[in-house]
Design brief:
It contains seven helices and 13 strands. The protein has helices at 3-13, 92-105, 128-142, 158-168, 207-217, 225-233, 247-282; strands spanning 45-46, 59-61, 67-69, 80-85, 116-121, 151-154, 170-171, 173-175, 180-182, 186-190, 196-201, 234-237, 242-245. By secondary structure, the chain is α+β, with helices and mostly antiparallel strands. Helix 3 links the parallel strand 5 (116-121) and strand 6.
Length: 283
């Protein structure tokens, strides 16, 4: 496992590493505090910025070499899945994109009609040629013809990239010793007006969680009535980064249905009694 992957997984899993080895001769080296992060990870973290709006005028280059702005991918009424990666990442970013594509494959919702995907490279050295190669690879894996216009692989300058990463709260750093970036692993679900709605952490994104996040980000405009009903029973848990079943909501719903049923029974019974009383009076 490469040093890059190890450092990134330390951040994502939420544990710290410290020096523990000691030499055969002489006193042991100074120990780092147990809660001290490795130097390469000191500036690497995710600062949740829910409801923060991304800069729509941020300028990038798409996979075909065209100049674009971030705003071109919003205002369509569709939510957007943002993956902050870099295309020559030796391991972790590929796992992020693999996990995202795998989750999308399980869903009946389609890129380009129900939502959009933006894979933005945070390495300013990368080019549209690399973006094109990545897009071809993942479109082949996604395997849904006609959805190409819903996937966007972007590159850009450092200042424009950081406008987006700062808005999302994605903190990363470049490790000069290995020539790679140290960063976390996540995808971000954005509303149709480019506001941060949900963070999904790690490299394995459940299809149910991603679907719920898209339905929620779209304010119910994406998905089915069943999805919207299920969101009443499943609640986002920020501590786990997943949607969990909420028993109380189910009990409240059952209670409301019981009351409605009881009320309906009373109304029907009263009407029957009145009709019977009028029939007796006439006879």
């Amino acid at each position: 496992m490469t040093k890059h992957l190890f450092l990134a997984l330390c951040l994502t899993a939420g544990f710290a590493t410290g020096a523990s080895a000691q030499g055969f001769y002489g006193p042991p080296p100074a120990q780092e505090p147990a809660n001290e992060r490795p130097a390469a990870l000191k500036d690497v973290r995710i600062d949740q910025k829910l409801n923060e709006r991304l800069p729509l005028d941020a300028a990038f280059t798409d996979a075909d070499g065209n100049d674009v702005t971030l705003g071109q991918y919003f205002g369509t009424g569709r939510p957007v899945v943002l993956a902050l990666v870099y295309f020559e990442c030796p391991m972790l970013c590929t796992q992020v994109l693999n996990g995202l594509t795998g989750a999308l494959e399980t869903m009946s919702l389609n890129a380009g009609s129900d939502f959009d995907v933006i894979a933005l490279s945070f390495d300013p050295r990368e080019t549209s040629k690399l973006a094109k190669a990545k897009k071809i690879a993942y479109m082949g894996r996604y395997g849904r013809p006609g959805t190409e216009h819903g996937w966007h692989f972007l590159t850009g300058s450092d200042d424009q990239i950081r406008r987006v990463t700062d808005a999302v709260g994605f903190r990363y750093t470049f490790d000069e010793s290995i020539g790679q970036f140290a960063h976390g692993a996540l995808i971000t679900v954005l509303t149709p007006d480019a506001r941060v709605s949900r963070y999904l952490y790690g490299i394995d994104y459940g299809g149910r969680d991603l679907r719920f996040a898209l339905v929620e980000a779209s304010d119910g405009h994406v998905g089915t009535p069943v999805d919207r009903a299920l969101l009443y029973c499943y609640h986002w848990d920020p501590t786990t980064g997943r949607y969990g079943f909420v028993v109380m909501n189910l009990l409240r719903g059952a209670g409301i249905l019981t009351l409605l049923g009881f009320g309906t029974f009373i109304v029907v019974s009263l009407r029957r009694e009145r009709r019977a009383a009028r029939a007796e009076a006439k006879s």
